[in-house]
């Protein structure tokens, strides 16, 4: 399924911001799709990010969901804006197992100040089989970009 891509300028702005996130780098997460109001983040399953039963830890699962939603919102903001999470709720529906996890953030309601996003995280097997392992909702606030 072909998905709409954000403009090259927006893709670069999102990627540059993502590259500054120490946690995403530490986890080994990467952006795999940047579209208007929709972002995908992939996290390879590794022993370093598992919990005691061998599943990807809920903290890692939640972190990529939060970032996917935040960057989905950022794709709709102008270049002088940034985004911060105000709150999010995540339901862990099944053990986070698979070759990798894929978090998808989708803007449900953009706003001048607050934006609401849907969060989904799938466990993806090596053969491509997918299972929804977490879903949630997030509220973000638009803030003015601070000059470097």
Describe this structure as you would to a colleague.
The mean pLDDT is 96. Strands 1-2-4-5-6-3 form a six-stranded antiparallel beta sheet. The protein has helices at 8-19, 22-27, 58-74; strands spanning 30-35, 38-44, 81-92, 100-109, 114-124, 130-144. The longest helix is centred in the middle third of the chain and has 17 residues, at 58-74. It is 24% helix and 41% strand. By secondary structure, the chain is α+β, with helices and mostly antiparallel strands.
Produce the secondary structure layout.
Blueprint: H1 8-19, H2 22-27, E1 30-35, E2 38-44, H3 58-74, E3 81-92, E4 100-109, E5 114-124, E6 130-144
Antiparallel strand pairs: 1-2, 2-4, 3-6, 4-5, 5-6
Average residue-wise pLDDT:
96
Q: Major sheet: order of its strands?
A: 1-2-4-5-6-3
Order of helices and strands: HHEEHEEEE
So how many helices?
3
Low-confidence stretches: none
Percent range for β-strand residues = 35-45%
Shape: globular
Structural class: alpha+beta
- Number of β-strand runs: 6
Radius of gyration equals 15 Å
Which bin fits the share of residues in helices? 10-25%
**Sheet of most strands:** 6 strands, antiparallel
What is the quaternary state of this protein? single chain
Distance between the termini: 39 Å
């Amino acid at each position: 399924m072909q998905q709409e891509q954000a403009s090259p300028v927006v893709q670069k702005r999102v990627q540059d911001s993502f590259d500054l996130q120490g946690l995403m780098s530490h986890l080994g997460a990467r952006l795999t799709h940047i579209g208007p109001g929709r972002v995908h983040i992939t996290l390879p399953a590794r022993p370093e990010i598992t919990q005691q039963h061998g599943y990807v830890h809920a903290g890692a699962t939640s972190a990529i969901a939060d970032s996917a939603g935040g960057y989905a919102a950022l794709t709709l903001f102008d270049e002088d804006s940034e985004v911060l999470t105000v709150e999010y709720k995540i339901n862990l529906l099944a053990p986070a197992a698979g070759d990798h996890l894929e978090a998808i953030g989708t803007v449900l309601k953009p706003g001048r100040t607050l934006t609401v996003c849907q969060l989904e995280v799938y466990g993806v097997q090596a053969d491509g089989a997918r299972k929804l392992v977490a879903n949630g909702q997030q509220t973000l606030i638009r803030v003015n970009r601070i000059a470097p």
